[in-house]
Task: structure prediction
Amino acid sequence: MMAQSSANDKCLNITTLDAKDIRWPTSLGAHGSDAMHTDPDYSCVYVTIHTAEGIRGYGMTFTLGRGTDIVLMAVKAMKRFVENRTTASIYQNFAKFWREITSESQLRWIGPEKGVTHLAVAAIVNALWDLWGKIRAVPVWRLLTEMEPEELVSTIDFRYITDAITPEEVIDILRKNKTLRKTKTEDLIENGYPAYTTQVGWLGYSDDLIRSLCKKYLRAGFTAFKIKVGQDLENDIKRCKLVREEIGWDNKLMVDANQIWDVNTAIEWMEKLKDFQLLWIEEPTSPDDVLGHKKIAEALKKYNIGVATGEMCCNRVLFKQFLQANALEFCQIDSARIGGVNEILSVYLMAKKFGVKVCPHAGGVGLCEMVQHLQMWDYTSVSCSKQERMVEFVDQQHEQFLHPAVINENACYAAPTAPGYSTELKPEAVSMFEYPGGSEWQRMFAEEIFKNE
Ligand SMILES: C[C@H](O)[C@@H](O)CC(=O)C(=O)O
Ligand SMILES: [Mg+2]
Result:
């Protein structure tokens, strides 16, 4: 395996950054629905970074319909950090670039490092990693794996986390694991990385649909399943029972409340579900409530139910607190929620230090495509383990991508081979689903399936 340094990279001239609002009408089939997001239209802000040399980087952040236009405005406000500069000026000190874009003296007032501005940073930064992978002609998981520890560290902004982990400690972790890289890489290429599915359990699905989807994913080799809970206790009991009838008791079952409960309600509700042998309760309460999660985790320990959270954890600082407080058992990073790959690397490394398993969130557009790369790097270079770890898989919009995530016959993510971050949409996906002008949206407005508001 040849390690390359950014000083040897081909240097491209970035010309423009273009961003689009793309939405799919998933609410029509209740796909993606949960206790809090009852009518999600899976959407994204889709960024293209153009270079004078013709190579493009694609990136995205995941949104739910309304509000995508607001994130789009934030991306447009940040274009100037990228346009008319060289790729070398970014990659040779990527952490410095990341700090610039997250710390802009006026924009940071409406963050900082959280919410709309951070989603916008994620879309741009993800596009830069796609471009970097293309420059080195490798998929991003290999780009990360093949980096020298010092170069990897140079992409991370350690501000606010040095009390938990330092660059020296990271270099130490990566150096120690270097001998494992080759065998772990070969294993990924041969076997892929384990997945679980939430596709059986969206809250708006009928009982019959849930049963038939359980059968479908069991046939496909899945052994771990997640369903949505939290709106109605009797209904949750009925659905857990139904899913257990279908998947049996040897397979894993997880539940996800998407933040609907207060802390004490979460404990009481989960006590009523304890007999279903649940591996985890996900997002039981506010994503910001570290001590609330800790209280829930302590109360549910005796039932062997772990607490999982992270898909809406706003940045590395909050992740740090969850880890320091021992408030979660499963850390669910999301590839488009915090500030893109650079910040997520720091979360993986802190999770390693605190001995917490990362099981990434991927319920959204493009999230499976992106996060597989990060978890594969974790396997080759950080935790170096698949033990009790798995990546979420939802069967949504993969056909819209040029290089979609692929699940193999063992229900594992196949290791991506195409250079980049698997983020490029097919041109027809853009022309059909750009909002509101795309041909599918125009048809749905004309047929009054949706209002153009
Ligand atoms: C709105 C999204 O579909 C959300 O429900 C996804 C999620 O929580 C998950 O996949 O986990
Ligand atoms: Mg979730």
Summary: The longest helix spans residues 115-136.
